[in-house]
Amino acid sequence: MKKANSDDILHRNSVPILAWDFHYEYINELKAIFADLKKVNKISNQFTWNEKDLEIEERLKDEVVVITDLDLKIVFASNGIKRMTGYSEFEVLGKSPRMFQGPETSKTVLEEIKAAIKLQIPFEKTLQNYRKDGRSYKCKINGAPVFNLKGKLTHFIAFEKEVA
């Protein structure tokens, strides 16, 4: 029987450090998605949403999810908000999504969004928004009213993603 030397043992059981870095990032991303989902489920259960068409769980992976109350104050923002805007969830809670708007934000598109909200209908618009550091970015927003199981409007939800 061949005796294994210490170099063989070291190489057989080692993983490149870079692989651990990717693994660590992936695990942290999964934790963030799970935490976001838990928070959204808490809101959903509290207000007994009819969430079958929202597909929140799937969309949390690739998009920023922002939920506002009926006064359009942010009550939830997924962890991706920091990556897209530079603001943490805690910095945006209680504020209006208007905080992301600036000089190049289209007034026409804002009026169209306002009309859709007033009519309680879904909308999809692309808007010039601004990060915390003042740089602008194009944001595709898929917004919708959220109703409870009795058909009463309780919140608005927006699925947002930066586009080129």
TrEMBL record:
<keyword id="KW-0288">FMN</keyword>
<dbReference type="Pfam" id="PF13426">
    <property type="entry name" value="PAS_9"/>
</dbReference>
<keyword id="KW-0808">Transferase</keyword>
<dbReference type="InterPro" id="IPR000014">
    <property type="entry name" value="PAS"/>
</dbReference>
<dbReference type="InterPro" id="IPR000700">
    <property type="entry name" value="PAS-assoc_C"/>
</dbReference>
<feature type="domain" description="PAS">
    <location>
        <begin position="65"/>
        <end position="120"/>
    </location>
</feature>
<keyword id="KW-0418">Kinase</keyword>
<protein>
    <submittedName>
        <fullName>Histidine kinase</fullName>
    </submittedName>
</protein>
<feature type="domain" description="PAC">
    <location>
        <begin position="121"/>
        <end position="164"/>
    </location>
</feature>
<dbReference type="InterPro" id="IPR035965">
    <property type="entry name" value="PAS-like_dom_sf"/>
</dbReference>
<keyword id="KW-0157">Chromophore</keyword>
<keyword id="KW-0285">Flavoprotein</keyword>
<dbReference type="GO" id="GO:0016301">
    <property type="term" value="F:kinase activity"/>
</dbReference>
